[in-house]
Specification:
The chain is of the alpha/beta class. It has a single domain (2-178), classed as P-loop containing nucleotide triphosphate hydrolases (Rossmann fold, 3-Layer(aba) Sandwich), CATH 3.40.50. It contains 8 helices and 5 strands. α2 (31-41) packs across α5 (75-89) and α3 (46-52) crosses α4. It is globular.
Protein backbone atom coordinates (compact mmCIF):
# COMPACT_ATOMS: atom_id res chain seq x y z
CA UNK A 1 0.00 0.00 0.00
CA UNK A 2 1.22 3.48 -0.84
CA UNK A 3 -0.18 6.64 0.75
CA UNK A 4 0.74 10.32 0.28
CA UNK A 5 -0.48 12.93 2.75
CA UNK A 6 -1.17 16.53 1.89
CA UNK A 7 -2.56 19.40 3.93
CA UNK A 8 -1.72 22.70 5.50
CA UNK A 9 1.44 22.90 7.57
CA UNK A 10 0.67 21.79 11.11
CA UNK A 11 -2.33 19.70 10.07
CA UNK A 12 -0.82 16.43 11.29
CA UNK A 13 0.60 15.02 8.04
CA UNK A 14 3.89 13.99 9.61
CA UNK A 15 2.15 12.69 12.74
CA UNK A 16 -0.10 10.55 10.53
CA UNK A 17 2.81 9.27 8.44
CA UNK A 18 4.86 8.42 11.53
CA UNK A 19 1.88 6.55 12.98
CA UNK A 20 1.52 4.42 9.83
CA UNK A 21 5.26 3.73 9.83
CA UNK A 22 5.20 2.65 13.48
CA UNK A 23 1.92 0.71 13.53
CA UNK A 24 1.93 -0.85 10.06
CA UNK A 25 5.63 -0.93 9.15
CA UNK A 26 5.31 1.53 6.26
CA UNK A 27 8.49 3.02 4.89
CA UNK A 28 8.37 6.76 5.65
CA UNK A 29 9.52 8.94 2.78
CA UNK A 30 9.70 12.69 2.62
CA UNK A 31 10.25 15.07 -0.25
CA UNK A 32 11.88 17.29 2.37
CA UNK A 33 14.58 14.68 3.14
CA UNK A 34 16.29 15.17 -0.22
CA UNK A 35 16.23 18.92 0.38
CA UNK A 36 17.96 18.38 3.74
CA UNK A 37 20.67 16.21 2.20
CA UNK A 38 21.31 18.72 -0.59
CA UNK A 39 21.63 21.59 1.89
CA UNK A 40 24.05 19.54 4.01
CA UNK A 41 26.12 18.90 0.86
CA UNK A 42 26.56 22.65 0.34
CA UNK A 43 27.55 23.14 3.98
CA UNK A 44 24.46 24.63 5.60
CA UNK A 45 23.43 23.92 9.19
CA UNK A 46 20.19 22.09 8.44
CA UNK A 47 19.75 21.01 12.04
CA UNK A 48 19.08 24.59 13.06
CA UNK A 49 17.06 25.29 9.93
CA UNK A 50 14.70 22.33 10.26
CA UNK A 51 14.34 22.36 14.03
CA UNK A 52 13.80 26.07 14.57
CA UNK A 53 11.98 26.79 11.30
CA UNK A 54 12.33 30.53 11.70
CA UNK A 55 11.28 32.83 8.86
CA UNK A 56 14.79 33.03 7.38
CA UNK A 57 15.27 29.25 7.42
CA UNK A 58 11.85 28.64 5.90
CA UNK A 59 12.46 31.21 3.16
CA UNK A 60 15.85 29.69 2.31
CA UNK A 61 14.46 26.14 2.17
CA UNK A 62 11.55 27.24 0.00
CA UNK A 63 13.75 29.20 -2.40
CA UNK A 64 16.19 26.33 -2.76
CA UNK A 65 13.40 23.77 -3.19
CA UNK A 66 11.64 25.83 -5.84
CA UNK A 67 14.92 26.58 -7.68
CA UNK A 68 15.61 22.84 -7.91
CA UNK A 69 12.03 22.25 -9.04
CA UNK A 70 12.42 24.92 -11.76
CA UNK A 71 15.48 23.08 -13.13
CA UNK A 72 13.72 19.71 -12.95
CA UNK A 73 10.03 19.70 -11.97
CA UNK A 74 10.30 16.08 -10.83
CA UNK A 75 13.63 16.41 -8.97
CA UNK A 76 12.18 15.69 -5.53
CA UNK A 77 9.64 13.15 -6.69
CA UNK A 78 12.17 11.02 -8.57
CA UNK A 79 14.17 10.65 -5.36
CA UNK A 80 11.10 9.53 -3.41
CA UNK A 81 10.08 7.01 -6.08
CA UNK A 82 13.63 5.60 -6.02
CA UNK A 83 13.19 5.19 -2.26
CA UNK A 84 9.94 3.28 -2.82
CA UNK A 85 11.64 0.92 -5.28
CA UNK A 86 14.57 0.40 -2.91
CA UNK A 87 12.26 -0.24 0.05
CA UNK A 88 10.21 -2.73 -1.90
CA UNK A 89 13.38 -4.55 -2.97
CA UNK A 90 14.08 -4.97 0.77
CA UNK A 91 10.57 -6.28 1.43
CA UNK A 92 8.80 -3.15 2.70
CA UNK A 93 5.13 -3.67 1.88
CA UNK A 94 3.88 -0.11 2.35
CA UNK A 95 5.15 3.43 1.92
CA UNK A 96 3.89 6.75 3.16
CA UNK A 97 4.87 10.27 2.09
CA UNK A 98 4.20 13.09 4.54
CA UNK A 99 4.61 16.23 2.44
CA UNK A 100 2.83 16.22 -0.92
CA UNK A 101 2.52 19.86 -1.99
CA UNK A 102 2.32 20.05 -5.81
CA UNK A 103 -0.36 18.80 -8.17
CA UNK A 104 2.05 17.30 -10.71
CA UNK A 105 3.64 15.25 -7.93
CA UNK A 106 0.21 14.08 -6.76
CA UNK A 107 -0.80 13.06 -10.28
CA UNK A 108 2.41 11.07 -10.75
CA UNK A 109 2.13 9.46 -7.31
CA UNK A 110 -1.47 8.42 -8.09
CA UNK A 111 -0.22 6.87 -11.35
CA UNK A 112 2.37 5.00 -9.28
CA UNK A 113 -0.26 3.41 -7.06
CA UNK A 114 -0.46 5.96 -4.23
CA UNK A 115 -3.64 6.84 -2.38
CA UNK A 116 -3.80 10.62 -1.95
CA UNK A 117 -5.07 11.74 1.44
CA UNK A 118 -5.72 15.30 2.56
CA UNK A 119 -5.64 16.14 6.25
CA UNK A 120 -7.69 19.14 7.35
CA UNK A 121 -7.23 20.68 10.76
CA UNK A 122 -9.83 22.57 12.74
CA UNK A 123 -7.28 24.72 14.59
CA UNK A 124 -3.67 23.94 15.25
CA UNK A 125 -2.82 20.26 14.95
CA UNK A 126 -2.21 17.22 17.07
CA UNK A 127 1.53 17.89 17.35
CA UNK A 128 2.41 21.45 16.38
CA UNK A 129 0.98 24.97 16.10
CA UNK A 130 -0.43 26.33 12.85
CA UNK A 131 2.12 27.77 10.44
CA UNK A 132 1.85 29.33 7.03
CA UNK A 133 4.63 28.26 4.71
CA UNK A 134 4.41 29.82 1.28
CA UNK A 135 4.91 26.55 -0.60
CA UNK A 136 1.68 25.17 0.83
CA UNK A 137 -0.34 28.34 0.60
CA UNK A 138 0.80 28.98 -2.97
CA UNK A 139 0.99 25.31 -3.95
CA UNK A 140 -1.53 23.80 -6.28
CA UNK A 141 -1.98 20.68 -4.11
CA UNK A 142 -5.46 21.89 -3.15
CA UNK A 143 -6.57 21.22 -6.75
CA UNK A 144 -5.86 17.49 -6.44
CA UNK A 145 -8.63 14.94 -6.33
CA UNK A 146 -8.03 13.13 -3.05
CA UNK A 147 -9.05 9.54 -2.33
CA UNK A 148 -9.83 10.47 1.26
CA UNK A 149 -10.03 13.58 3.44
CA UNK A 150 -9.43 13.28 7.16
CA UNK A 151 -10.64 16.06 9.43
CA UNK A 152 -8.78 16.38 12.72
CA UNK A 153 -9.47 18.35 15.87
CA UNK A 154 -6.63 20.04 17.71
CA UNK A 155 -4.86 17.68 20.08
CA UNK A 156 -7.08 14.64 19.42
CA UNK A 157 -4.54 11.95 18.49
CA UNK A 158 -6.91 9.14 19.46
CA UNK A 159 -9.39 10.38 16.86
CA UNK A 160 -6.66 10.82 14.22
CA UNK A 161 -5.24 7.33 14.83
CA UNK A 162 -8.71 5.79 14.72
CA UNK A 163 -9.42 7.48 11.39
CA UNK A 164 -6.08 6.30 10.03
CA UNK A 165 -6.78 2.70 11.10
CA UNK A 166 -10.17 2.83 9.41
CA UNK A 167 -8.61 4.33 6.27
CA UNK A 168 -5.93 1.62 6.05
CA UNK A 169 -8.59 -1.09 6.43
CA UNK A 170 -10.66 0.49 3.67
CA UNK A 171 -7.68 0.84 1.33
CA UNK A 172 -6.68 -2.79 2.02
CA UNK A 173 -10.19 -3.91 1.13
CA UNK A 174 -10.19 -1.83 -2.08
CA UNK A 175 -6.74 -3.09 -3.09
CA UNK A 176 -7.83 -6.70 -2.49
CA UNK A 177 -10.84 -6.11 -4.77
CA UNK A 178 -8.54 -4.86 -7.53
CA UNK A 179 -6.41 -8.04 -7.40
Amino acid sequence: MRIAFSGEPGSGRTTAAEYLAEMYGFGLLSLEDKLKFNLIDIGLDVGRMFENKDDTSIALMELYGEAMREQDPLHWLDTVLEGVEFGESLGTDGHVIDDLCHRIEGDILRNNGFWLVRINKSTGSPMCPPMSYRKYNAGDWKDLEFNRTINVEEGDLVDLYGKLDKMVSEFERLEAKED
